[in-house]
Amino acid sequence: MAEVILSHVYKAYPGNPEPTVKDINLEIKDKEFMVLVGPSGCGKSTTLRMIAGLEEITGGTISIGGVVVNNVPPKNRDIAMVFQNYALYPHMTVYENMAFGLRLRHFKKDEIDRRVREAAAILGLDDPKENYLQRRPKNLSGGQRQRVAVGRAIVRQPKAFLFDEPLSNLDAKMRVQMRAEISRLHQRLQSTMIYVTHDQIEAMTMGDRICVMKDGIIQQVADPITLYNFPSNKFVAGFIGTPPMNFFAGKILEKNGKILFSEGTFEIELRDPAWKEKMTAAKVTDVTFGLRPENIGSEMAEQNPDLPRIRAKIEVIEPMGAETHVYLNTGKTSFIAKVDPFRKVRYGEEIELSVYLPKAHLFRNDTEEAVF
Ligand code: ADP
Q1: Burial (CB count within 10 angstroms: exposed 0-12, middle 13-18, buried 19+), residue 60
Q2: Residue 16: CB within 6 Å of ligand 1?
Q3: Rounded distance, CA 84 to CA 164, Å?
């Protein structure tokens, strides 16, 4: 078993006015792929480095496989870390780079050879014609170097793999390819993996679960679909998804027994009884209405005459092929809609777009928490 449990973990760097990581409580299950995601500086790497033992823990406990490791040195934690800059030894061959850690641990030669060749086969570095194992890192592409760095972790057969932004030095195409390779690797090795990235697409595509962080605090931990559909606050809602969720600041009004959201230029009735209940319980009027671009003016929504509509002026049109992204303005709020690529739209034109209300969100303006 290699579950990793962080309990009330804090990290304060000397000289910094505030702790970098605050009260992190996170249970990463055995064999789980957990992604830590958030903007640069939110404390993801610090958290990962505390798990690895590369950074001291200021408060709380971290346990790996049921053992508290706060005072266990990194080399005895039985975990392997893959970094962004690969950290390969330039003067060693690929084979030696992968074998090095095992040699230090006095593994037998045969066992080292078996493990290195197995890792090379898993990573597609075993083509006899290419002779990758005997090359030096400088004679490899970025993607191949990244594979060697992963290979060095695989040969250790660790309890858990830790990845710190491993793909950020690769070009966009290679990133997409390596993303799928690491997911396949997880399926194959069935190991606990903890993966740090600032890229929400990497998080969504790779994570069994995703932990979203901001300012050293966990905002939400959930599987990708839950996170996308039920963000717990405005930050998570805006961070996950591209183009991002649209936010319309406004007020809740009551008119003739109806509950309305008013942006100023338009009003929308919040008809759903479950929403009404939540609105009444929340007792707030200053709110932000959230709607993803695919839920405004979508082909499906346009065919539903019961849905509310908003009028807005087209400012920018971006044809993507499968869909067209249209940037609009209500006169008060800018927003983006994903519309059918065959819909005729023109710059400067005012159009009406239907709002697919079942997928709408509402956030309090004071705490930014989701009302629904
Ligand atoms: P992330 O991985 O989310 O980009 P980090 O964990 O690397 O964030 O850093 C979080 C914050 O902690 C940053 O503001 C950074 O300046 C600060 N920090 C990181 N390492 C140190 C250090 N060794 N000493 C002081 N402050 C640090």
Answers
A1: middle
A2: yes
A3: 6
Q: Is 44 in the pocket of ligand 1 (CB under 6 A)?
A: yes
User: Distance of CA 8 to CAs 24, 58, 64, 216, Å?
Assistant: 5, 10, 15, 12
What's the rounded Cα separation, in Å, for the pair 258 and 250? 16
- pTM tops 0.85, yes or no: yes
Residue nearest to atom 7 of ligand 1 (CA): 45
Paired tokens of 308: 């509310």
Q: Which atom of ligand 1 is nearest to the CA of 45?
A: 2
What is the CA(43)–ligand 1 centre distance, in A?
A: 6
Residue 86 clears pLDDT 80, i.e. is over it: no
- Which CATH number does 4-238 carry? 3.40.50.300
Confidence at residue 1, expressed as pLDDT on a 0 to 100 scale: 61
pLDDT of 278 strictly over 90:
no
What does the domain layout of the chain look like in residue ranges? Answer: 4-238, 244-364
